[in-house]
Every structure is written in C-alpha cells, then in structure tokens.
Amino acid sequence: MKRVITPGTFDPITSGHIDVITRAASISDEVIVAVAASPKKHPLFSLEERTDLAIRALAHLDNVRVEPFKGLLVDFCASMDAHVIVKGLRAITDFEYEFQMTALNYELNQHLETLFIMSPPNYMYLSSSIVREIASLGGDVSQFVPPCVDVALKEKFATALL
Ligand code: COA
User: CATH topology for 3-124?
Assistant: First the structure.
C-alpha cells in the first residue's frame, strides 16, 4: 500500500493509537496521521497541542507524518491524494459507529477504502476520554500514554488539582 490516512481527534494520542499507527506504518509506504479539529467534541487540548503531541509521540517512525485538518475527512484525503483510511477497531461496540462513518465516507467518495486493524487485548478498553478522566482525578496514566502526553496531562490538570 502506498499512502494511508489514520484519522482521529487524538485528545490526546494514546498507546492504543500508536499501536494502530505503527501497524499501519509496517504495511504501507507512508502514513499521514490526520488530527481532526473536532469542535463538537470540545477537546481538552487545542488542535495545535494535539498535533504537536502526536508529532513527538510518533517521531521514531520514519514513514509517519502528522497533519491537522478542519472540515471533512474525505476532502482532506483528496487534498493528500490518499485513497485508503486505516482505523483501529477495539471492542465490538466500536463497530456500529465505524460502520456508519465508513458508509458515509464511501457515499461522499467512492474511491476511498477504509481498512480496520484490530487492537490487541491490552488496548481494547483504552480511550482518550478514559485517560483524560483518570488524569483529571490525579491518577497515573503513564502505562496508557507516551511520556510527552503524560507530562502534558499533568501540566493541564496541575492547577485543577491544587
Ligand atoms: N486505541 C485507543 N483509543 C482509540 C483507538 C485505539 N486504537 N481507536 C479509537 N480510540 C478512541 C479515541 O481516542 C476516541 O476516544 P474518546 O471518544 O474517548 O475521546 C474514540 O475511541 C473514538 O475514536 P474515533 O472513532 O477515532 O473518533 P474520533 O472522534 O477520535 O475521530 C474522526 C473521528 C475525526 C475520524 C471523524 O469524526 C471525522 O472524520 N471527522 C471529520 C469530519 C467528517 O468528515 N465528518 C463526517 C464523517 S462520516
């Protein structure tokens, strides 16, 4: 496979995301990690912060680059001349949501394929919101996120915990 897109809000990027991106990088020439603005999710980290954290967390992967985007994913894929989206599938509960997004993206651009990579058991129940919640309550998330994200979460919640 040539160029693939791995999209998400990445608020923040977790070890589960990194696992999927690493697998995608091993079966493609180039991975573009597309960091969505996702204003409706009211992200904890700004688009710039989420992009910067993903760049730092993925710096060890030569064929991976990170790009922020606003607007439709299908338009971003077209602007990157990419025809394959790769997403992670964790539990069966992901399936319906992913099924809907894949079907809609296909309606918007029939030249776009979406492939899924199963998460390993240790990342099945990991999500960015769970990580945010544990960190916000002063819990240790170092086993779930790369070191730069661990530091960023501590800084973000430092004042809240005072
Ligand atoms: N490991 C750990 N967590 C994972 C994961 C993995 N492998 N895969 C997904 N997750 C988590 C995410 O962190 C996120 O967690 P949260 O909701 O607790 O924050 C959750 O699962 C949902 O992930 P995902 O399905 O990737 O959704 P997203 O909101 O991060 O990103 C976009 C969705 C950006 C791909 C989608 O909204 C999009 O395409 N937006 C652009 C606008 C558009 O085109 N809309 C029309 C779409 S049809």
Answer: Rossmann fold (3.40.50)
